């Protein structure tokens, strides 16, 4: 836990869904980032972009060469080596269309699904990867659960 970390989160919600309250997202991002960040960090910046499936497909094609939409994308800039104290973590892009669809398919609230995607994206920015092997997937799921507990403990 890096309680002295200064966090700057940029929120660009092109969707405008009132169920997802921006001030709460920013508070929860700060809580999550302080939990995940190593102690050498003094300041960390994160950008969150909420889009529809059409724009997500464009971003996915441009940045990854995949001509399809997806639920969440992460574009990391962070590095632990060398331990630079002031860093930009990166960008998380969430498709609200897919978020809504998945929340209905899974059977939980839109808020639950949104934070699941946000935490998943943030963990990727810190280098967690569920696609490398089963051990890494288990570690990432454990960290996701810990972060989501921070969000929903209130």
Structure description:
With 154 residues, the protein is α/β, with parallel strands linked by helices. The chain has 5 helices and 4 strands; from the N terminus they run βαβαββααα. The longest helix has 19 residues, at 134-152. The radius of gyration is 15 Å and the shape is globular. The chain starts with 5 loop residues before the first strand and ends with a helix. 31% of the residues are buried.
The helix/strand series, from N terminus to C terminus, equals EHEHEEHHH
Strand content: 15-25%
Radius of gyration: 15 Å
Helical fraction equals 40-55%
- Given helix and strand content, the structural type is alpha/beta
* Order of strands, widest sheet: 1-2-4-3
Name a few traits of the molecule:
single chain, 154 residues, alpha/beta, 21% strand
In terms of topology, how is this protein built?
Layout: E1 6-13, H1 22-36, E2 43-51, H2 53-64, E3 72-76, E4 86-95, H3 96-106, H4 110-125, H5 134-152
Parallel strand pairs: 1-2, 2-4
Antiparallel strand pairs: 3-4
Helix pairs in contact: 1-5, 3-4, 4-5
Q: Can you summarize this structure?
A:
This protein has helices at residues 22-36, 53-64, 96-106, 110-125, 134-152, and strands at residues 6-13, 43-51, 72-76, 86-95. By secondary structure, the chain is an alpha/beta fold.
């Amino acid at each position: 836990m890096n309680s002295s970390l200064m966090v700057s989160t940029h929120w660009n919600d092109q969707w405008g869904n009132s169920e997802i309250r921006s001030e709460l997202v920013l508070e929860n991002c700060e809580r999550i980032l302080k939990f995940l960040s190593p102690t050498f960090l003094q300041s960390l910046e994160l950008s969150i972009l909420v889009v529809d499936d059409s724009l997500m497909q464009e971003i996915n094609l441009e940045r990854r060469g995949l001509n399809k939409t997806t639920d969440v994308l992460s574009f990391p800039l962070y590095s632990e080596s060398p331990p630079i104290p002031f860093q930009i973590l990166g960008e998380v892009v969430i498709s609200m269309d897919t978020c809504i669809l998945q929340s209905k398919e899974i059977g939980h609230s839109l808020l639950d699904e949104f934070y699941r995607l946000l935490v998943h994206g943030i963990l990727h920015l810190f280098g967690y990867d569920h696609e490398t092997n089963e051990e890494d997937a288990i570690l990432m799921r454990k960290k996701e659960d810990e972060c989501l507990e921070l969000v929903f403990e209130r």
